[in-house]
Specification:
With 126 residues, the protein is an alpha+beta fold. The protein has 4 helices and 6 strands, in the order E-H-H-E-H-E-E-E-E-H. 34% of the residues lie in helices and 33% in strands. The strands form 2 sheets. The protein has a 4-stranded mixed beta sheet, with helices on both faces. Strands 4-5 form a two-stranded antiparallel ribbon. The longest helix is centred in the first third of the chain and has 21 residues.
Length: 126
């Protein structure tokens, strides 16, 4: 693949998804992507370009939109993608922490820059 990128679509409709938590979710997304690539025998050499990491672009998903809408568009284009589902997302309510089960926090998409620009060109950086 020429000019590969890893795009991450981060939710902005969750007040609890602070910048630090968003960074953690992005790290989860990259780990999930690299695991997925390994089990599907995808060569990441062109993405990493002689480095230990490749180009990652984190974008904001508008609160009026949803990851599900994006997943439909991405699936139609037959791109490689996945959604990070946090199995135990913590939400602080005073001194009590609630753990919400199976919260989707972000979606990762692996594609070339041209497809990424076409698909995500109207989204802003996170």
């Amino acid at each position: 693949m020429k000019n590969p990128r890893l795009y991450m679509l981060m939710r902005t409709d969750m007040n609890s998804l602070t910048p630090g938590r968003a960074c953690a979710q992005a790290a989860h997304a990259q780990s999930e992507f690299e695991y997925w690539a390994r089990i599907h025998s995808i060569n990441l050499a062109s993405w990493k370009n002689d480095r230990i990491f490749g180009t990652v672009i984190v974008l904001r998903v508008d609160p009026n939109d949803s990851l599900t809408n994006w997943e439909s568009k991405i699936t139609e284009l037959e791109l490689f993608w996945g959604t990070v589902i946090d199995p135990k997302y913590p939400i602080q309510d005073g001194i009590i922490t609630h753990y919400v089960k199976d919260i989707p926090t972000c979606t990762w998409v692996y594609c070339n820059k041209e497809n990424g620009d076409k698909l995500f060109g109207n989204l802003k950086l996170y």
